[in-house]
Every structure is written in structure tokens, then in C-alpha cells.
Amino acid sequence: MDSLTYIQHLKKEYPVKQIGDEPDLAGRLIAHLGNRLPEFIKHKINNGTINVAEIQKSDPQAFVKEVSENDYAVVIHSGLSEFVYRVVRAISTRVVDHNLGVETGETFDDTVRIVAEIFWWFQETGQSFGPEYNIHEYQKKIASIITTEVESFFLAHELGHIIFPKEDKLSFEKVIERLTFGDYKGFIRSDDHPHFGEFVSDATAASVLLGIYTDCIDSNPVLNNLRYVGIEFGLMIFSGLEALEFPTSDSHPTFKERINSVREIVRKWTNDDEQWQNLIQLASYFELLFERIIETIANPSTSQIEYYEDSAAKVLEKIEDSLDRHSISLEEKPKQQDFVNVKLDSGETVKMPMPNFDFNDDSITPKYSQFYMEVSDILSVGYSHVFFEKLAKEFRKNIKLSHEQLVELEFKLGLIEKNQRIKILKKNEDLFYQLKEFQKTKLLHGYFSRQANPSGEYFFMKVYG
User: Fold this and answer.
1) Each residue of 378-415: pLDDT tens digit?
2) Is 446 within the bounds of a domain?
3) pTM, rounded to two decimals
4) Is 59 among the domain residues?
5) Number of domains present in the structure of the chain
6) Do 418 and 293 sit in the same domain of this protein?
């Protein structure tokens, strides 16, 4: 089997959704690195002895495989881009530019909580997910640029294993290939430290990303700053996971060790301390910010704990109120106008009257569409871990009648005129309570069964095991 066939098998098993003729992530990153890639690497990509592809897998990984002699497949999981962007985007809300009117849309405590929830979703489901929050278009652009550089660094790291193979993997053919393009830089001795190859690949990736390897250093210092941020930010994210004791790969050195190794090497490439400080200025800002976030997640202060608990309680209260209002009631209340938050193209959020798709207000059935719209707005704030924990404990806990009995009860009561139905249920409060709890479970079940994001799957896992 050659690398192309290997890639085709993977893409068939884990197909990535394509948007028209737009290249996949791998193609975009190869184009992005462009002339910063060594000539012999570009030659191998062009002649098909290096095939780079993205596959649809949620775990944030990239790897290289020598499928046959001197024929390589480099594979990037879609989850790498998704996870990195979600974390980078949240942290980019801390970037301000007073001249452009860009301010932080969230408090620092809320940024901490948002990043913590992204990590929580990753730990619980292995997928990238998290709450919504305020972010400026400028901050989105910064997040997008940094994410591309992070992705490019991880791709260049895998290519680094091809550029600097181990001594016992460096055949005569490979030496000639490198000499032909003037790219022979050596190899890794087989007796070196087991993790030495990872440090070399990180250094190689850094030299490629910064344009040092092919002498294509950009004259724009801001662009070089962002490229260096990409090197460190990706390693920082996974270093944060390590600090919070999330399971990470045991085949690599720690991400903190890798950051220190990259810094030590890149520092030697700069002419003086001033040039070094200018290069790492933005990366240092993000490092201090990220370390503060990780420290707060691990050791929140008493006031922060109280703030998070109070905010979570308010979210739960809103969900319970919505469930109560959209399930069966004994009260003859005037119809309440429901509102939903709508984000306009300008980025402004306004309250709009919620359309009523549940046409018959006298019907016994729950008000599904109104609940779905309202609860989406509530849950977008976050605090998912609190909600699901409570839900797992209380879902169907107080329902004594069987599902069949409740369906039959709801059907028969639905045939009765509303005022008469209310009189019957007022005389049978336990029956009413059972029916109301049943309808609440139907509302939640209906909402989460419609979710394409990880929350739907997680709901059924927590509730039904």
C-alpha cells in the first residue's frame, strides 16, 4: 500500500464535509506555509510521496506514518482545528485595542469559566464545544489568524519527523533526495534521548513557521509575532490540559518541556535580547493570561466560587421556570408573550417576540417550539456541568406511573375541554404532578434529541447511562 491509498482509506472511513471545491484543512495549510517549506518536502508533496490530509475525527491530533519506504502520510484530525480555535477564540476576547474601540466583552472571571467549560466538554465528550459569549469582529480575526498558525505549527512538526529522520530510518535514497535540493541537515542518532526527536521536530517546525529554514523570514514584525504566538499557543493549550491533569499523550515529553525547548532554540536564532523580546511580546502576553486562567480554574478564590455558584443557580432557575411555563398548568393565566434574544448582522443582540408555532393554546400537549427556542438562549450562557449533573439526578425521579400509562392519560385528558380538564386535575393533584413531570421530560428529551452538537449525546448518556 502506498501513502495515497492509505489516505484514501482513512478519508473514506472518516470523511470530512467539503464546501464546494474549497481545499480541506491540509491543503490550506500547505498553501499557507508555501515557500517556507523545504524544497525537497514540496517536491515530495508534488510527486505524491508525501500525502497530507484531514480526516473527520474529534480527538485533537496529527500524526505522520511512513506507509512504505520513503512514502509518507501526514494526517490531521478535524478535532485539532476545532478544539484549538474554540480555546483561542475564547481567550482572544481579552485582546483590546482602544484605538479601534475593541474592548473585552466579558469579565475575566467569565473568560475563565468559558475556557473551563470548553475543557470540561472536551474531557466529558472528547469533542469541542462550549458556551456562547460576546466577541468583537477584530477579536475573531485575531483568533482565526492565531489558529491557522497553531495548525501550521502542528503540521510542520509532523513534517519535521520526515525532515530529520532517525539514523536507522535514513536510507541512501533519502540522503540523495535531500542533497539534490540542498536540504540535507542531518539526522537523529538512534541512541539519543527517546524524546529528542520530538524536540527536534518542534525546533524544525518553529524554523519553518518563522521562515528561518528556507530563509523566507517576513519583514513584517507583527506577522512574525503572530507566527511565534502560533508556536507557543498550541503547546500552551495542551500544557494547560496537563496542568489540570487531563490525560494527554505519554509518547511525547510534557508540553511545558516542549515550550521551554522551543524558546531556548528560537532565542539563539535572534540577534540580541531586544529582537527576542519583540518577537515574543504577544506570546508572553498570552502566556501570562493563559497561566492565570489555568490557575483560576484549578484554584478559584472564594469570591469566584460564590460568583460561579450564584450564576449557575440563576441559569438552573431559568430552565426550571421555562419547563414549568411550557408544560401543563392548572392556572387560567392570560397568555404570556415570550421573547428570545436575536443576534443581528451588526453583532447587536436584541429581544424579539417569539413566534408561536404551538397553534392551539388550549391543547394539553407541551409548548415544544417555544421551549426549544427559549432554552437554547438560556443554555448558550453555559454552566452545562451544573445543569447536566442536576438533570442526571432528577430526570424522571418522581414519576411513578409507567410511560404507557402517562401517554394514555395525556391522550384521554386531551379529548376533554380545557376548563373541565383543569377541574379533574385539581381534584387529583398527584395525577397532575405526574403528568407535569412527564411533560417536562418530554420537553427536555425533544430538545436534546434535536441537537447536532455534543450536548444531545451527552444528555442521553447522563440520563440513561
Assistant:
1) 888 888 878 888 877 777 777 777 888 888 888 887 77
2) yes
3) 0.80
4) no
5) 2
6) no
CA-CA-CA-CA torsion for 450, 454, 460, 463, nearest 10 degrees? -130
Q: In which domain, by residue range, is 155 found? A: 78-298
Q: Quick check: 263 and 287 in contact, CB under 8 A?
A: no
Task: Tell me which of 298, 316, 336 is where a domain ends.
Answer: 298
The 10s digit of each residue's pLDDT in 234-267 is 888 888 887 777 766 555 678 888 888 899 989 9
Q: How far apart are the first and last CA of the chain?
A: 41
* pLDDT over 50 at 360, yes or no: no
pLDDT band at 357 (very low <50, low <70, confident <90, very high): very low
294, 379: one domain: no
- 242 and 367, same domain (yes or no): no
The answer on 348 and 422 residing in a single domain is yes
End residue of a domain, out of 264, 282, 298? 298
